[in-house]
Design brief:
The chain is built from 9 helices and 8 strands. By secondary structure, the chain is an alpha/beta fold. Strand 5 (127-130) and strand 6 (136-138) form a beta hairpin. The structure holds BIS(adenosine)-5'-pentaphosphate. The site of BIS(adenosine)-5'-pentaphosphate (AP5) has 35 residues, from helix 1, helix 2, helix 6, strand 6 and helix 9.
């Protein structure tokens, strides 16, 4: 099964993609995670994109499309994938349709997490992850069971993203509305799009997403 999650920064794409990945034994493909890994490793691509990402701007289409096409060719994607953060522009969406068709694949569901912009700043500026296993947390909504200790691996080191400050979040929200929101009409026209209430609790959102998949 091939899924696509769409929604503004902070909508819960990463959080829900991890849950769907476990539930359906598919792979999470997050272009943001791939780019941050490239930046951390100091690869040519990473060095090229880091500054723009830290300002909250989108990375150029051609680079992203090649990166995701190569990733889908890898063996672990054979059972399916959940796309998180891609496509983000109309050219990326059109390229995805074409490259999947070339590989004999297609999207099965496009799931929109519909949220209020105002709540996203609070969600994003409160977010942090375990520095060792990348488990996600939030200062208010998802604290570790024992303060300062990762639930999953016991590490006591945590980190925050360089682009998770209020000013950059506003730039990222503007990029979403200008460049990504038009994709909703694109996918509505294909009959693939279902919207769920991304303002509900984390578990309720997961239930809504699974419900949309069950209903087909
Ligand atoms: P990316 O990493 O994709 O970031 P983003 O889209 O800005 O999304 P986020 O990761 O911030 O939010 P999310 O929706 O995953 O929310 P999360 O689940 O963490 O992209 C970063 C950058 O990379 C871009 O700005 C761009 O520069 C570049 N890039 C990436 N892909 C690109 C592309 N295709 N083209 C061009 N450039 C690209 O949730 C946030 C917090 O809220 C968490 O703490 C979570 O616990 C909490 N939360 C989530 N849901 C709920 C809920 N229902 N109730 C309460 N709390 C909740």
């Amino acid at each position: 099964m091939n899924l696509l999650l769409i929604g503004p920064p902070g909508a819960g794409k990463g959080t829900q993609a991890k849950r769907l990945k476990e539930a359906y034994r598919i792979v999470q493909l997050s272009t943001g995670d791939m780019l941050r890994a490239a930046a951390a490793q100091g690869t040519e691509v990473g060095l090229k994109v880091k500054e723009g990402m830290d300002r909250g701007e989108l990375v150029e289409d051609a680079l992203i499309i090649e990166m995701i096409s190569d990733r889908i060719d890898q063996n672990d994607c054979k059972n399916g994938f959940v796309l998180d953060g891609f496509p983000r522009t109309l050219p990326q969406a059109e390229a995805l349709t074409g490259l999947l068709a070339d590989k004999g694949l297609a999207l099965d569901y496009v799931l929109e997490l519909a949220v209020d912009d105002d709540a996203m700043v609070k969600r994003i500026t409160g977010r942090f992850t375990c520095a060792k296993c990348a488990q996600g947390y939030h200062d208010e909504f998802e604290r570790p069971a024992k303060d300062g200790v990762c639930n999953k691996c016991g590490s006591t080191e945590f980190k925050r993203r360089a682009d998770d400050n209020e000013e950059t979040v506003r730039t990222r929200l503007a990029a979403y509305h200008n460049q990504t929101a038009p994709l909703l009409a694109y996918y509505r026209n294909t009959g693939l799009l279902t919207s769920v209430d991304g303002m509900a609790s984390l578990d309720e959102v997961t239930d809504q997403l699974k419900g949309a998949i069950l209903r087909g």
